[in-house]
Amino acid sequence: MSERRVVVTSPRTRAATRPRYPATREIDEQTRLGEVYMRSLVRSQLRLSLFVCTVLACVVGGLPALFLLIPGLRELRLLGVPLPWVILAGLIYPMFVGCAWWYVRQAERTEKDFAELVDRR
Amino acid sequence: MSSSYELAAVLLVVAATVFIGAFGLRLSRTTSDFYVASRTVSPLWNASAIGGEYLSAASFLGIAGLVLVHGADMLWLPVGWAGGYLILLVLVSAPLRRSGAYTLPDFAEARLESMRVRRTASVLVILIGWLYLMPQFQSAGLVLRTLVDVPVWMGGLLVASVVTVNVLSGGMRSITFVQAFQYWLKLTALAVPVVFLLLAWRADGAPGIADQDWLLPLEGSRDHPVYATYSLILATFLGTMGLPHVLVRFYTNPDGRAARRTTLAVLSLLGMFYLLPALYGALGRIYAPDLAATGGGDAVVLTLPGRVIGGMAGDLLGALVTAGAFAAFLSTSSGLTVSVAGVLAQDILGGGVRSFRLATLIAVVVPLALAAAARSLPVADVVGLAFAVAASSFCPLLVLGVWWRRLTETGALAGLLVGGGLACGAVIWTIASGPLDGWQGALLAEPAAWTVPIAFGVMVATSLLTPGRIPAGVARTMVRLHAPEALDVDRGDWRPRRS
């Protein structure tokens, strides 16, 4: 039996030269890792959305309760206008826009972070 | 004599609407153009168009009327109608655009991979659309009758005809331009007269409102004000996302990010507009309290310029608000007609441009007949009922569909049928029998506080009981709904069915 010559390479070298497996493919092939990536994105977006909804629920749900529990509050006047009117017919709209603006910024940031995480080579 | 100015204003709005609509004629030739304007609409146009479509007779005339009659509690109505867009923004706007669906039934089909859910959603879209169209036609009739001596149904017929011609000739593209124009017209038509009204009010010595109960929330003339307030808040905040004519606009955004930004713009435009109706309500309480007593609250916006300012200026300003009111009838009715006709054509008549034309006629004629037959309730109340139905059916479907992987076909179906069914039942009862007294009346007139939790509960519980019916492609659909467009990932091959 003659000696057969074989090529001996270090496994480390091979590992180093193998192309990285991109995370987008993990997502496409629905591997466990891909699922983890997607769930983390959905969860952070949902957390952000629920935070805004909670703030909104406290403000919007709290106002009638406040007016009910502390009736005196309804009769306060700002520049001659009753407080409920100042809030409901005025100030609440800029508050909505502010919340929406903040949310859009945060949501876009989350998506940018996710894209960078998944797309890096 | 004053009515001749107003009549001229109405004719001008009608002519302008038809004219601008005709511009779209050459641009829309294929089915895809008819449905969503080929997604080439710029964000500012899109936001104005959403605003224009959304601000119906209920916003333009109805809010001021209800504030005049019932006082501070009614301020929640515009707050909810604007705030609904904040909920829509944070919960559904971007994923919904990314789903690639054109209509609510498309979304139901894409997410749940079920034709049964799709058909149920179609029926609900048509019902909500008709419920929303009916009071638009009724108010058009009331407004036109104050100008010329014609039967009430004539106004509705006029609006219905213009809408039909417009939708048939241009489809969505022309509608987008018409709608954008209508938003700015409506804003101007309320904002300019209110400046003159406030000046006249100051010159008059700035009289206050004597009726303290009217000024305070939870003291209004309605039964069970606390329950009614919370139910109204729930219906308006959650119902906005389930309105068929609002969602169809989101597909004209190029991507999910643009959909979010458009929603932010819409919220700003609506916030600006909704500062105005409350002022009309309050001024009406000072100068036209008789309208509250005779049940003519919806006319307060149209009546005030003539009463407070009077003369030539009053006539011209009156003509301006009348023009705005007609813009409101036309724009909302157009948007609703396109949505209802689209769903009717696709899911019931088999698709294609020809069935879209037939569907347009059906979409308009049924609510026109209902408007003539049903009793006339305040316009904002009936529109509020449409919100309650949307909040009890599409809101759970969209929210759970976007965020919860374990939603099943059976769960969605059960939730839509129970929630939508209960809300529709309450609506039919209220419209058919008129407002009832006591708890029964409060529960039926403002059903959202009990129907929305029931709908969510049924949808979640049934889904948990049928874990075998989770759609096979849910993981891929989640990628589609949530992954930013810039990423190169597989989003599945679902496409909305086009003929």
Straight-line distance between termini of chain A: 47 Å
List unreliable stretches of 5+ residues of chain A.
none
Basic shape of chain A: rod-shaped
| CATH architecture call of chain B | Up-down Bundle
**What proportion of the residues of chain A form beta strands (DSSP E)?**
under 5%
Figure out the total of helices of chain B: 22
Main sheet of chain B?
none
Name of the CATH homologous superfamily of chain B: Sodium/glucose cotransporter
CATH overall fold name of chain B? Sodium/glucose cotransporter
Spell the H/E element sequence of chain B: HHHHHHHHHHHHHHHHHHHHHH
Beta content of chain B:
under 5%
Mean pLDDT of chain B: 87
Structural class of chain B: mainly alpha
Biggest sheet strand line-up of chain A: 1-2
**Subunit arrangement of the protein:** heterodimer
| Rg measurement of chain B, Å | 22 Å
The total tally of domains of chain A equals 1
Quick one: how many beta strands of chain B? 0
SSE pattern of chain A: HHHEEH
Helical content of chain B, roughly? over 70%
- Largest β-sheet summary of chain A: 2 strands, antiparallel
Summarize the structure in short.
The complex is a heterodimer of chains A (121) and B (499). By secondary structure, chain A is mostly helical.
Description:
The complex is a heterodimer of chains A (121) and B (499). Chain A is mainly α and 121 residues long. Chain A has helices at residues 11-17, 23-28, 32-69, 83-119, and strands at residues 77-78, 81-82. Chain A has a two-stranded antiparallel ribbon. In chain A, β1 (77-78) and β2 form a beta hairpin. In chain A, α3 runs antiparallel to α4 (83-119). The radius of gyration of chain A is 28 Å and the shape is rod-shaped. The relative contact order of chain A is 0.11. The model of chain A has no long low-confidence stretch (mean pLDDT 85). Chain B has one domain: Sodium/glucose cotransporter, CATH 1.20.1730. Chain B is 78% helix and 0% strand. Chain B contains 22 helices and no strands. Chain B has helices spanning 2-23, 31-36, 43-54, 57-70, 76-98, 104-112, 115-147, 152-203, 212-215, 225-239, 244-250, 256-273, 276-287, 289-294, 300-309, 311-348, 353-373, 379-403, 409-433, 438-445, 448-465, 474-482. Chain B starts with a helix and ends in a 17-residue tail after the last helix. In chain B, 63% of the residues are buried. Classes of the chains: A mainly alpha (121), B mainly alpha (499).
